[in-house]
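Usage

Read records sequentially. Each one opens with the input sequence:
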Amino acid sequence: MRPKRYPIRQHMLDVYDRQARQLPLEVGSMEKYQTWKAKVQKRLWEISGLQWMETCELTPQILEEEHFSDHTRKKILIQTEPKVWMPFYLLIPHGIKEDEKRPVIIAPHGHGCGGKAGVVSNTNQPQVKKGILRYHCDYGLRLVQKGYIVFCPDARGSGERIEDISVKNNENDLLISSCNDLNLAAISLGQSLLGMMTWDLMRLLDYVETVDFCDSSKIACVGFSGGGLQCLWLSAFDERIKCSYISGYFYSFKSALLHTHRCGCNFIPNLWKYVEIGDIAALIAPRPLLIESGREDSLNGTMGIESVTEQVNITKEAYHLFGKTENMRHHIFEGDHVFQGGPLVSFLQTWL
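and closes with the structure output:
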């Protein structure tokens, strides 16, 4: 006989209905929008712990260099905070001429693909290859093959940045992460893992600006799943990102995150009290934005694809205010939680 249980999920949903989204998008006028934007960015900066991030010298180091038929892959290390090191792959297409500058893609990873290794299709490990086949997450390789310069970092707690506590029982598992361990510690320090991830990407942009062959006036961000989350936050705070492609991460907090998401990188104290995902994306307006969603993606939540379109419609209000509705697009494909990328190249060619 199944034991009696007394869960509190419905109570939390009731609390959500009473307290959530206290700072909804304001589009009554451009002045109201700008006032709202400044207020929301300030509040998110505070609750995410970005206000406590420390700047330092980047101190870049080239660790590896490999040559392939159509590109060169360098592994580089930079310091994003004092004693905090971030490795990333820099993918450079062949054929760059002297004094030529190329558009740049920042390509953060999601879960289940071995961090940056999956994004660049470094399939030396069978686990990474399995992740790529499952999620189609090798978009960094696809983009360098189209001639873009691509930066593929490891987020804190993933890939080569996983914490010792997370690997002590399975040293060879490349697909696990330290997100929960890190976020539990971070929130007790007034920070958050998502704030740390966002800061690291902002420091990566600082590094991009030092690279001679990078056109720092033409930087896009492309991310899938947890990489889409990172893309969303980076684009909302840093206008050096000129266009954004968010795949597999755009849902209602109530419909999805309270039911299907359990990774610590999603959670910031008090976040749901102030905004929804559609509000955060509205901070990107009027810069070009493409949201990609699988109709059968289980992470869409209890409302399914309607959860996504509800948030997309919130964001569209900001683009309508700017008179730039053509700058935002929602691509829905028939599939589950994968990076589909059908309109990716045409989107980048249009806006970069």
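Summary fields computed downstream for this record:
- The two ends are 61 Å apart (CA to CA).
- The chain has a mean pLDDT of 95.
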